[in-house]
Design a protein that fits this description.
The complex is a heterodimer. By secondary structure, chain A is α+β, with helices and mostly antiparallel strands. In chain A, 42% of the residues lie in helices and 19% in strands. Chain A has one domain: Cytochrome-c3 Hydrogenase, chain B (Orthogonal Bundle), CATH 1.10.645. Chain A has 14 helices and 16 strands. A 5-stranded antiparallel sheet of chain A has the order 3-2-1-15-16, with helices on one face. In chain A, strands 8-7-6-11 form a 4-stranded mixed sheet. In chain A, strands 12-13-14 form a 3-stranded antiparallel sheet. In chain A, helix 3 packs antiparallel against helix 4, helix 4 packs antiparallel against helix 12 and helix 7 runs antiparallel to helix 12. The longest helix of chain A has 33 residues. Chain A starts with a strand and ends with a strand. By secondary structure, chain B is of the alpha+beta class. Chain B has 2 domains: 79 residues, Ubiquitin-like (UB roll), CATH 3.10.20.740; 139 residues, Alpha-Beta Plaits (2-Layer Sandwich). Chain B is built from 6 helices and 10 strands, in the order ββαβββααββαββαβα. A 5-stranded mixed sheet of chain B has the order 2-1-5-3-4, with helices on one face. Chain B has a 3-stranded antiparallel sheet with strand order 6-7-10. A two-stranded antiparallel ribbon of chain B has the order 8-9. The radius of gyration of chain B is 19 Å and the shape is globular. The termini of chain B are far apart. Classes of the chains: A alpha+beta, B alpha+beta.
């Protein structure tokens, strides 16, 4: 008799998702699926719009990482215009992207993941949230809020709005940076260092107590993909893509946005609205890979900033070769936050940062273009085709969550096999299976936010659809 | 009273006011700091009474009159802001929003849009009518400007400014009823039309239907205030 366990919706994620765990006749877990249950349709309804509107239109995909979409989209538009943006504009965008990475990672780590990490996987679900963290560890709660404010404040200073700033446009940015804004950002940096150091130290102290979870939280060899600079250092905004294998060897290097679809394909599974990206020469699913903080840190040789480099060296000691457990995404996220703060400080020390040459202009000089950037969750690619007037005729977006999709599915199967025993499970097991997904910090569909307290039901059904066991959280 | 007297006295919202023969209710109201909301009206352009937002009540008449084109008469009693008028104005705005695709969040005129501002002023909190969601084209063929029919409310300010002020009469309206559409010349692409590239139509457009390509991403306020000055200077010559 086969049975299905459903976790719907999965909580503390950006967007709506659901997990199904399929049990075989012997009560053992046979398969597990992570479903993304909403279609968004951005690729379709952007058809007919002028290409120069695309950055602001695409930014609306997500309220957490609108900047990543702004940047990937603007770069795709610049490929259509065939322009190279001014140095200052590139640096300002880099800073905006890093500010967003810091605030998004702070959201993921402190608001979504830290209740599991600091309060415990088995702790009372009614208090397992950011307010619970604030009550139990006020200094860490404050650090999380502070780091989010740090990133959001930079976004607001540069783009006038914390969410969906319209400042990034094809050709550069609309306005140069003013000196007082630079000084305000610089003044907020010492506190940001303090907060991220506090979080890193706290995490390292507790990481050891999660050894069991580290073993089974999407812990398997896989390929990894991310942007990287020519000197093998980490890069979020420019550079080219590198794909490495499970042992760390380079499979393909120097992948530009224009070549992305030549090498990366997207498979479709009937149970999810999110596609499954794979490296074409290896086929699907063997060519599946992971993106995001873990992938980036596995791929790069250095962060290019002193404090983060020290942390990276320590991170690389976790395993021989690439760090394979997705649990370590949390650690990687904290190191990236540290890097972001250091890099922002470096960028602001460049005297050219106040230059007023921040925008290149041009019309349609090519009928297609692609742009790529590292979103907090991983590689993001936008590709557009336009007619001679610049109206979009076709758009394709490859988002980080789609590229992590196969690993997330494999990850929940691995965890379900560990935590669901003979068809039985506990509330702690349920939370651990969700926590596997949280390590990836997927962004499923930011149009559907949790409002109030989201209900969560884990149901065990037999083949006739009868409920055998149920845990309900409301 | 003799109707040939040049000065007419009337009341607007209970205030005793006076105006010259031939003046519209709107002109007299504004001279006396009484606000009547408008949308298709623009100082410096001829009025057509297209949008019906400025409708007012006249004592003794069951019909509502558009203040921008209705002229005053002696003893007229005008009410500009009754509950009935407020309801009608909101209805008109709801119809405008439901008719085409007005998505403020991604519109170049967000924050500077007269339709958006008016809806806020009139307390329009939601649209009860089903949206028509028509599939409308965007004309991006012009070198500098774009026409997005999705955001057009057919106020015809662009038609009037092009014909009356620029003298080019590139813009006009094609079709009937709900199928009305702004066209350039004899329905050809704006980019290949006889447009003089003066940009007046962009400045007078109350929404994001006509916009400057280079302003994407930045604040895109329109500056229609040039019209009365332009008229004044032309008269002075």
């Amino acid at each position: 008799m086969t049975q299905t366990i459903t976790i719907d919706p999965v909580t503390r994620l950006e967007g709506h998702g659901k997990i199904s765990i399929y049990l075989g006749d012997n009560g053992q877990v046979e398969d597990a699926h992570f479903h993304v249950t909403q279609v968004r349709g951005f690729e379709k309804f952007s058809e007919g719009r002028p290409f120069y509107e695309m950055p602001s239109l695409m930014a609306r995909i997500c309220g957490i990482c609108p900047v990543s979409h702004l940047i990937a989209s603007a770069k795709a538009c610049e490929a259509i215009m065939s322009v190279r943006i001014p140095h200052t504009a590139a640096q300002l965008r880099r800073m905006l992207n890093l500010a967003q990475m810091v605030q998004s990672h702070a959201l993921s780590f402190f608001y979504l993941a830290s209740p599991d990490l600091l309060l415990g996987m088995e702790s009372d679900p009614a208090a397992r949230h950011i307010f619970g963290v604030v009550a139990a560890r006020p200094e860490l709660g404050r650090a999380g809020v502070g780091l989010r404010r740090f990133g959001q404040n930079i976004i607001e200073l540069l783009g006038k709005k914390r969410i969906h700033p319209g400042w990034v446009v094809p050709g550069g940015v609309t306005e140069p940076l003013e000196a007082f804004k630079r000084d305000e950002i610089l003044a907020s940096i010492p506190e940001a260092y303090k907060n991220v150091t506090l979080a890193l130290n706290a995490y390292k102290k507790i990481a050891d107590s999660f050894r069991a979870e580290i073993e089974v939280f999407a812990n398997f060899p896989s390929n990894y993909l991310s942007l990287v600079n020519e000197d093998d250092s980490i890069e979020f905004t420019d550079g080219t893509l590198r794909l490495i294998g499970s042992q760390g060897g380079v499979i393909e290097d120097g992948i530009t946005a224009a070549r992305f679809t030549e090498v990366i394909g997207e498979a479709v599974e009937p149970y999810s609205y999110t596609k499954f990206a794979y490296y074409k020469p290896l086929g699907y699913p063997d060519g599946s890979y992971r993106v995001g903080p873990l992938a980036r840190l596995n791929i790069v040789d250095s962060m290019g900033t002193p404090r983060a480099d020290k942390e990276l060296a320590e991170f690389k000691q976790l395993e021989k070769g690439p760090v394979q457990s997705s649990f370590h995404y949390h650690h990687a996220r904290l190191i990236e936050m540290l890097y972001g703060i250091e890099k922002i400080e470096q960028i602001l020390s460049d005297p050219a940062i106040l230059s007023t040459h921040v925008r290149a202009t041009a019309g349609v000089n090519r009928n297609e273009g692609a742009g790529q950037a590292e979103a907090p969750r991983g590689t993001l690619v936008h590709q557009y085709k336009v007619d001679d007037n610049g109206l979009i005729t076709w758009a394709n977006l490859v988002i980080a969550t789609g590229q992590n999709n196969n690993a997330m599915n494999k990850g929940i199967l691995q965890a379900a096999r560990e935590y669901v025993d003979d068809g039985k499970f506990t509330p702690g097991a349920l939370n651990r299976i969700e926590a596997v997904i949280r390590t990836f910090d997927p962004c499923l569909s930011c149009s559907t936010h949790a409002f109030g307290q989201m209900p969560l039901a884990l149901t065990l059904l037999n083949a006739d659809g009868e409920t055998i066991d149920q845990v309900i959280r409301s | 009273m003799n109707d040939t007297v040049d000065v007419k006295t009337l009341t607007i919202d209970g205030h005793e006011v006076s105006g010259r023969r031939g003046q519209t209710i709107l002109e007299v109201a504004r001279e006396n700091d009484i606000e009547i909301p408008t949308l298709c009206h623009l100082d410096g352009l001829g009025d057509v009474g297209a949008c019906r937002i400025c409708m007012v009540e006249i004592a003794g008449s069951a019909k509502l009159l558009p203040a921008c084109v209705a002229t005053i008469f002696e003893g007229m009693e005008v009410l500009t802001n009754t509950e009935r008028l407020q309801k009608y104005r909101r209805n008109i705005l709801e119809l405008l929003f439901a008719e085409r695709n007005h998505v403020c969040s991604v519109c170049v005129s967000n924050g500077h849009c007269e339709l958006q501002t008016l809806a806020q002023q009139q307390g329009l909190t939601h649209v009860r009518l089903p949206y028509r969601n028509p599939q409308l084209a965007v004309d991006a063929s012009h070198e500098r400007f774009t026409l997005d029919h999705n955001r057009c409310i057919l106020c015809t300010r662009c038609v009037r400014v092009c014909a009356e002020i620029e003298g080019a009469h590139v813009w006009d309206v094609m079709g009937r009823g709900i199928d009305c559409t702004i066209i350039s010349d004899l329905h050809q692409d704006w980019g290949s039309s006889s447009c003089t590239r003066c940009g007046k139509c962009v400045q007078v457009c109350p929404t994001g239907a006509l916009f400057d390509k280079s302003k994407i991403g930045s604040d895109h306020p329109k500056y229609p205030d040039f019209l009365p000055y332009l008229n004044l200077m032309r008269e002075a010559q």
